[in-house]
Amino acid sequence: MAVVHCLGTGLVGAWVVKRLAAAGHEVHAYDLHPHSVLGVEGVTAHPCDLFDDMTPFEHNVPVDMVVNMLPGSIGHAATTILAESSFRIVDLSFSAHTPDRDDEKARDYGATILWDVGIAPGLSNMLLSIADRRIGPLQKAEVWVGGNPTGPFGKWSYMAPFSPIDVIAEYTRPARVIRDGEEVVLPALSLRHIVDTGEHGDMEAFLTDGLRSVLKSIPAVEMSEFTVRWPGHIQKYIDMRDAGEINENQLILEWEYDHKVPEFTWMKVRAEGRNGEILEWEVEDHGGDDGHSMARTTGMVTACCVEAWLSNPEMLPPGVHAPEVLSDVVISDIVDMMRSERIRIDGPDIL
Fold it and tell me: What is the pTM of this model?
């Protein structure tokens, strides 16, 4: 089996570490406080400050794969440094700066980076790519996604299933979308509307900057991504923001994830071809004994990408690659694996 080095052991990172170790890989996990993976069979935990040293795993050879699951700007900094290596890197970090800017550098050094490998971005990109190959060019493409408690509770009706810093970034970063075939920028949190989430009923959706690579890789007349929350949540945030009362440290505390609160992750990907044909997928998970729903849905995509790449070392050439470049076979395998783990995915078959 492989030797995999994982940077970050937060809510999602710890799930991926445990998943890869359970599959029989030798896993090295690096975090300032890797307590969530201490004592896990097959995992060697390395307490370290990744702000000071982004590549401590270079002292723990061999390195078959590196998985970057660090939040925000530190995650981006790690990938930028890793682009100057010869490693294969699966990158789950999420920041305003995307690693595609390091493509030429990565090719020069021999690094290969597969980025944005979560549920959205990630699986959403893959499904849009399937739609583009099948019914493209697309007239309209839309993604709705959110991880939320199963009912509106507390003053925020929300808890952060991944880094709260990344959630705050979603709420503040202007949203890049496609209108009339061109990339334009709209205010984050705009275009608010009610969306039917099935058994959970009506929730509120608003524009966020989650399209990223598909803005350039998938032609469409119109393309948008929306984050989904319980009604009232985002209005509260907007009111506090406009009043100058946003305190990020306080939000981190108030949005702290509570494992005792039932929760779910829901996503819909809808693509319409220019002939009117529509392909639509719906993804839903309520968590399980192995973790909460966002860790399972996001981490499953990440872990499946690692496994696919390990089984086919020539899957990608050196450079920086977005998830939509993966083949139909790899995408189908990811969807099948998620379904086998009781994650509901309704929609057209991939193959």
Answer: 0.96
